[in-house]
Design a protein that fits this description.
With 364 residues, the chain is an alpha/beta fold. It contains 14 helices and 14 strands.
C-alpha cells in the first residue's frame, strides 16, 4: 500500500487527519522536520505534503532524486526559489482540515485511476477554476478562454478542461471555431448526472492525449435551462477530481448560474474592448455586483477589430479596475491559428499574451 507523509504543525489538521485516510493509501504524520530523513528512509512515501517552513530543503531534494516516482507537495508557505525538481509541486496555503482532505481525495483518485489505466495518470498542479467573462459579445472572450486552456496544457502538461456555459439555441461559437460536432455535449450529463464519472465522460469531446478536454453546451435553450446552480456544483465537484485546471467560458448574461460559477472560481478574467462604452458598462457592473465573493479579478482589454481605442489609463480611471493585460489587434498577415485534434481552428494564437497572463497572475 502506498504512503502519504504529511509534515504539519497545524493541530486542526494533524488531530483530524486519520478521518481522511483513504482505503488505498496509508497516512504518516510528523510535526517537525527533526526526524524527516528517518521517516523518509523508513516509509519511502510516494507522496509527501509539506506544510511547515523547512530549514533543510536538500533532504527532500535528495529524496526526490533517488525516488523519481515520488511527488512532493509544498504549500505556498514554502517555495524555495533555488530548488527546482520535476517532483516538486507548489500548491495554495493548507490552512484547514478541509484543504488537506481535498489534496488527499485527489491523490486517492489518482491512485485509483493509475491502477486501472496507468497511461492516463496525472499530477495535481495547484488546482484552479478560472472563469472568463465579458459584458458584451465580440470581445474575444471565447478565443481567450480557449487560449488559456490550451497554453496551460502546453506549458504544464496538466489535465485541463474547458467548460462552455454559453447556453444558446443551436451550435455554440466554440464548436464552430473548433470545427467540431456539437454532440456529445453537456446535455448528456444534465440528463444522467446520477451516473457521475460515466456521465461526465460520455459528455466530453473525445480528445487526443496532447489536447485539452472540451465540454460543450446543450444544443437548445430548453436543455440548457435544466442546468441549475445545484447541478453546476455537482458537475464542478466531479470535474475537480480529474483536472488540474478548469476553465469556464461564461455566458454574457449575468444570471444566478453565472454568479454561482464565478463564486466557485479562484480567478475571474474579465474581457473588454478598449472603448469608452465598454469601460462605462464595466464600471456599472462592478458597482452593481458587489456581492461577488471572488478576490482575484483580472481585467483584460482586447482589440480584435482595430478600434481607435482609449488609453489603458483612461480605461482604468473609468472602471476603477486595473488592466492587467492588453491584447493588441492582430493584422491578417500576422495571424496564426491554434490546432485542436490535429486540425486547424478559427481561434487566433495568442501565445505571447496568454503566457504573460499565466505566469504573472495565475501561477504566482
Amino acid at each position: 500500500m502506498k504512503i502519504i507523509l504529511l509534515i504539519s504543525e497545524n493541530r486542526e489538521i494533524t488531530d483530524n487527519i486519520t478521518k481522511y485516510k483513504p482505503k488505498n493509501l496509508d497516512l504518516v504524520v510528523i510535526k517537525t522536520e527533526k526526524y524527516l530523513r528517518h521517516y523518509l528512509e523508513e516509509y519511502l512515501p510516494e507522496y509527501v505534503i509539506v506544510n511547515i517552513f523547512l530549514e533543510n530543503h536538500f533532504i527532500l531534494n535528495e529524496y526526490a532524486e533517488n525516488n523519481p516516482k515520488s511527488t512532493i507537495f509544498f504549500s505556498s508557505l514554502e517555495k524555495p526559489e533555488k530548488i527546482i525538481n520535476k517532483n516538486f509541486i507548489f500548491i495554495k496555503d493548507i490552512k484547514s482540515k478541509e484543504n488537506i482532505k481535498d489534496i488527499i481525495d485527489v491523490i486517492a483518485r489518482i491512485e485509483i485511476e493509475s491502477n486501472i489505466n496507468p497511461e492516463h495518470s496525472f499530477k495535481l498542479i495547484n488546482q484552479q477554476i478560472i472563469s472568463v467573462y465579458s459584458l458584451k459579445g465580440g470581445t474575444g472572450k471565447t478565443t481567450i478562454a480557449f487560449n488559456l486552456a490550451y497554453f496551460l496544457k502546453k506549458l504544464l502538461d496538466a489535465r485541463v478542461i474547458l467548460l462552455d456555459l454559453n447556453l444558446i439555441e443551436g451550435p455554440s461559437d466554440l464548436s464552430s471555431y473548433l470545427k467540431t460536432n456539437q454532440i456529445p455535449n453537456l446535455n448528456y450529463y444534465i440528463e444522467n448526472y446520477d451516473g457521475g464519472e460515466d456521465a461526465l465522460k460520455k459528455s466530453l469531446i473525445l480528445k487526443k492525449s496532447e489536447d485539452i478536454d472540451v465540454l460543450l453546451p446543450p444544443l437548445s435553450l430548453a436543455q440548457g435551462n435544466n442546468l441549475n446552480s445545484s447541478l453546476l456544483n455537482k458537475l464542478i465537484n466531479l470535474i475537480k477530481g480529474f483536472y488540474n485546471f478548469i476553465i469556464i467560458d461564461l455566458p454574457l448574461n449575468f444570471t444566478q448560474l453565472t454568479l454561482e460559477a464565478i463564486n466557485l472560481s479562484d480567478s475571474l478574467v474579465i474581457v473588454s474592448l478598449p472603448i469608452e462604452a465598454c469601460a462605462l458598462k464595466l464600471s456599472k457592473f462592478k458597482l452593481k455586483n458587489i456581492s461577488l465573493k471572488i478576490q482575484n479579478k483580472i481585467s483584460i482589454i482586447n482589440n480584435p477589430y482595430n478600434f481607435s481605442s482609449i488609453s489603458k489609463n483612461d480605461f482604468e480611471k473609468i472602471t476603477k479596475l486595473p488592466v492587467l493585460l492588453e491584447i493588441p489587434h492582430f493584422e491578417n498577415k500576422n495571424k496564426k491559428f491554434l490546432n485542436f485534434r490535429n486540425n486547424a481552428t478559427d481561434l487566433i494564437d495568442m501565445e505571447h499574451e496568454i503566457k504573460q497572463l499565466i505566469n504573472k497572475y495565475l501561477l504566482t
